[in-house]
Amino acid sequence: MGASDSFFIDAATNASYLPGAYHPGLVLLSIFVSIFSATMALQTAQIARRAESALYRHITIGAGAIALGCGIWTMHFIGMLAFELPTHVHYSTGLTLLSLLPACAASWLALHMLVRPEVDGPQLAMSGTLVGLGIGAMHYSGMAAMQTPLLMYYEPVTFTLSIVVAISLAVLALWARTAA
Fold first, then answer.
1. d(CA 6, CA 65)
2. Does 179 score more than 90 pLDDT?
3. pLDDT > 70 in the chain, percent
4. Could you list the residue ranges that cross the membrane (predicted)?
5. Got the DSSP string for 3-62?
6. What DSSP assignment string belongs to 51-74?
7. Radius of gyration for the alpha carbons in the chain, expressed in angstroms and rounded
């Protein structure tokens, strides 16, 4: 038995599925938080780009990374709270807070990339990949923080697709901002 046996759906397992529903107000709040934090992070990147002092630039990037990372994390957990299941769901405080680290690290990397005067293709691809993986790590570690009597498994193709989409959108976002 490998580690993936308790993570992915096994085609041989006969499992029943539980329906869930989304609370529209919380979904809209999640979208608003996402847009607001991304806008503030782009403003911070511009301030850092114009900074003459290296120390000021690093402090600005760090502050922006914390703000953007917390925004990504908050958006994610508001979205998780928006998903209502017909059972009790509790979150492990330690793992929930630990899931903040990949979001902040990915945000620091993204802002660090946006501040550079020039970025080539391989740097963009590598940074976008690491940002996408950071967001994926935040998402799935946050999901692991869920404590419920239900058994939760991931469908392997959808899981992989979610990581590919996160990486692709991160590369696209960094490219769009550096190309501007």
1. 33
2. no
3. 93
4. 20-42, 54-83, 89-111, 123-141, 153-176
5. GGGGTB--TT--------EE-HHHHHHHHHHHHHHHHHHHHHHHHHHH-SSHHHHHHHHH
6. -SSHHHHHHHHHHHHHHHHHHHHH
7. 18
Distances (CA, A) of 105 to 22, 45, 102, 112, 173: 29, 15, 5, 10, 17
CA atoms within 13 A on the CB side of 32: 7
Q: Do 43 and 62 touch, CB atoms closer than 8 A?
A: no
What does the alpha-carbon distance between residue 74 and residue 84 come to, in Å, rounded to a whole number? 17
Question: Could you give the CA distance from residue 136 to residue 142 in angstroms, rounded to a whole number?
Answer: 10
d(CA 62, CA 40): 13
Instruction: Give the CA distances from residue 84 to residues 89, 119, 146, in Å, rounded to whole numbers and listed in that order.
Output: 9, 42, 13
Contacts of 31 (CB under 8 A, 6+ apart): 75
Tokens of 67: 């703000």
Are 177 and 114 in contact by the 8 Å Cβ rule? The answer is yes
Helices and strands in the chain: count of H runs, count of E runs: 6, 4
Task: Give the Cα separation of 52 and 20 in Å (integer).
Answer: 51
- Each residue of 119-131: pLDDT tens digit? 888 888 888 899 8
Eight-class DSSP state of 149: S
CA dist., res. 25 & res. 23, Å (int)? 6
